[in-house]
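2024-03-11 09:14:02 INFO receiving multi-entity request
2024-03-11 09:14:02 INFO entity count = two
2024-03-11 09:14:03 INFO echoing inputs for audit
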Amino acid sequence: MNKRRIPEEAGIFAVLIAIVAVLSVLSPTFRTLDNGLVLLVNGTVIAFLALGQAFVLLTGGIDLSTGANVAMTGVVAALFMQAGLPWPVGAALAVLVGTALGVTNGLLIHYLRIPPFIATFSTQGVALAIPLIITGANSVAVREAGFSWIGQGRIAGVPVPVLLLAVAAIAAALFLKMTRPGVHVYAFGGNKAAARLAGVSLSRTTILVYAVSGFCAGMGGLIATSRLMVGFPSTGTGNELFYSIAAAVVGGISLFGGTGSVLGAMIGAVLIAVVSNGMNVLNVQSYWQSLVIGLIILAGVSFDTLRRYRSGKPILRRPASGTGSGATPSPATAPTTQAQTPITQQHP
Amino acid sequence: MKIRKAFGPTIAVSLLAVSLAACSNPALEAPSADSSSGKLPASCSTDKPTIGVALPNTINPYYVAMQDSFKKHGEELGYDVKVAIANDSDSTQLSQVDSFIQQGVCAVALNAVNSGPGAASVKALNAAGIPVFTVNVIISPDDLKTQNASFVQYVGADQVAGGTQMGEQVLKDLGADAKIVAGIIGNPDQIPTNQRDQGFKDALAKNSNASTVQTVNGKIDPSVSLQVTGDLLQGNPDINVLFADAGPHAVGALQAVAQQGKADKVKVYAFCAADQKLTSTYAACAAQEPAKYAQIVLDNMKKHLAGESVEKEVLEPLKVFVDGQTPGQGEVG
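2024-03-11 09:21:47 INFO inference complete, emitting structure
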């Protein structure tokens, strides 16, 4: 619209730069390249979860099962390798298991009409229990030495998990911007009823976004397990879920769907990684750390909300019609709605 | 209308008054059956008395080992052992203890989720006249006193001594006056791990060239420990000793040291991780023996039920492992 429009992510990026600057001044060890890589590697699991979460949030849903999915896929990968599968096969199968959990979420939400919060909350419980049931709470050692490449390897000095994340994020961003199913994701979240009338397949889009989230969680599980070389049944079940949602939201993805970008979510994830790392490097007592992260999330979101509000696009205001537009059609759309799809009137 | 309006509140107030009068505050009453007075629940005289075991979780292998030992050894002693897992919730544990009371169990072994709130469970069992044995987590003496509650016996590891043993091992390995810069991977939210850290620091304090620079929070999760240890080593490049005060912390710390290529520079001392062999980097670890504690509790419970007196506190020293050794099954920090 406006030619000189500032990119959506500018606000959060400025916050990130400011925090990096402050931390660099406070600590000489923070600003080393070595620490930068440590920080990025530490942030990859949360960033992967945030990437998957971004797809789900864009449709106005939420995926609470991702942290548990990390634990499940990590243990499953270790078990596959213990059973004698070569590591690339074991890793691929484990990611497939993670994706399958996502597909299950999508099926439950679309066909059984279970609200995403409840559906993924339930599958979270299932995914948490599976590794505990299989292992009896014991860790599963990874015997295939090659598997460590995923979490610990480097290509041209850049850690492999960071590269994997970069590839996934770029692919995801292009997918959402350039392809038809990608645009459908935005349409779904912007106005579900309108999207359906416009020919967006709700079932396919729902299943797709949860499958992507499951896939990303599976990647997170592989990276966490590969860094430890141990499948640990409670890995990923701590702050990961909360931080991944926070990263996406701080990065400008609306909890109500339709707005935001992959780039924003990734900046959000890096921001959280920077703050976590910076506080440990600066020797901040752990009691204070979640307080500081909470405040930064608040600051980031308020900054963004305020900016959107000023430019006339409040992030937290639900569209007045919402999904019920079929039930209370505005005068302008009502006749066309009735004329084209009388079916919608049967389910007000 | 007016009468009706007044009617509801009147009923409510009078009901409240009645319920308040009928209710009492158990926290202020004296124990109805002092656990040492010898009067045992009726269920103890059956052929196979039921013993209730309340544990915090079965996510930690430590409690899995303890649970298995309670079941196995209880069977040998002729008890029917019922285990309740609280999923780390104090209120869940209290309701599980209440359910033990409803079932009329003969005695309870309580591994409280948290030290302070555990006193309420002890109090409830006191009021029902059921003897309580506490294990692993010590119940806060202050809370016991305010609630006028008491247990028969506490069995557990000497956490402070465990930390001290590791600190002394550091001085033994590196030299009594060597320059030592230590970092701790701890869990500042929990009392036992803080006690271990304190013991470790106190032992190091004997060396004036030793300093502890920082404590990071590993949250009893190897993945978190790997991340925070990485940060810790970045922030303090001259660290040469790490103390990981729980098994999962040790797993993450060792990976972080290896991944930063500092295996020659940094030595890790820890509370043992399960099945992890000690090396020149993973220099020593202290292990608790949860299976043994369960066994001690049951043996002493049997004595107590037979009318013999038992000690108020059994503090077991920790088992130390060094380079080349591997902790056995169920020997974890």
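2024-03-11 09:21:48 INFO post-check: Strands of chain A lie at 140-141, 154-155, 158-159, 230-231.
2024-03-11 09:21:48 INFO post-check: Residues 202-228 of chain A form the longest helix (27 residues).
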